[in-house]
Amino acid sequence: MAVQPTEIPKTPRERFIAALERRPLRGRVPHFELVFYLTMEAFGRVHPAHRSYYQWQQMKESERRRHRQDMADVYVLTAERYEHSAIFLHPNPGSEEEIFRLIDAVRERSGDRYFLMLHGDATFGIPDGHGMLDFSCRLVDEPDKVKQEAANMVEHSLGWAERLRQHGGLDGFALCSDYCLNVGPFLSPEQFREFVTPYLTRLIAAYRAMGFYTIKHTDGNIMPILDQLVESGPHALHSLDPQGGVDLAEVKRRFGDRVCLIGNVNCGLMDTGTDEEVRESARYALRHGMPGGGYIFSTSNCVYTGMALERYDSILEVWRREGNYA
């Protein structure tokens, strides 16, 4: 799966991997988005994640084959038009067999041109409102049971990852458990070290041993646990959320020699800011992310439903003009 360091990175996938490995690059900074939901606006086609599972259940196999191909086409069209180096697949439906088929369909459509990833987190994130109180009480009342659940989740995910490795075609995982609110982590740094960090570290180490790359995503203010996130050993951190007070320049100064950084054009400004504020956010990300390599350009979350496509186009204009190594 990995590209040998002695090779000159040429394809978007190779350049993406070079950035993850913090190797020097020439030319355009790699770029991708965790999700690009505006496929209806861009291509007049429904994003794969927005399609109905109930409709899928009613389809004949001939319809399903066309549907699989169309989903693969949408992912590749998005990467081609917006110069993404990587594609984060969101299988729908998400059965093991259909995930394999989607990977194969995208590879058949694009070869090895793009880096392919799936969601692969298995650690405790912020619980939803229904389970938040119960989870918080369990951390105090039955910590050993919570830790055993954490270990079980990791082992289950590693079993799935091994089947993916044997199938082939996948390059890595985006680990998308969110740990933080805008004001700080849901768990204290001490609790995070007890209930998350050991399991995140185990997960990432095992993924690496299988040959997979890992991108750890979490929104919010990660600064109180930033050292633990880096310590856990991911290839990259995403999204370095400016709405949570995360300054890419500070993260780069402290840990840019240890981990690739991905982000962090302010998604809030994409809706509420002026055109110049949006462009300046893109410039700031490039100016502070690029030095020394180990940087991938993206928004601070994703290109979400409701974002004006013109705003996304505007940050890409800045990226194409200013995001270039000599």
Textual characterization of the structure:
- The protein is 50% helix and 12% strand.
- It has 326 residues and is of the alpha/beta class.
- The protein has a domain at 31-116.
- Strands 2-3-4-7-8-9-10 form a seven-stranded parallel β-sheet, with helices on both faces. Strands 1-11 form a two-stranded antiparallel ribbon. Strands 5-6 form a two-stranded antiparallel sheet.
- Helix 6 (132-141) packs across helix 7, helix 7 runs parallel beside helix 9 (197-210) and helix 13 packs across helix 14.
- It is globular and about 50 Å long.
- The mean pLDDT is 96.
In N-to-C order, the SSE pattern is HEHHHEHEHHEEEHHEHEHEHHEHE
Strand order of the largest sheet: 2-3-4-7-8-9-10
Give me the count of strands: 11
Tell me what portion of residues adopts beta-strand conformation: 5-15%
The helix content, as a percent range, equals: 40-55%
Oligomer: single chain
In angstroms, what separates the terminal alpha carbons?
Answer: 28 Å
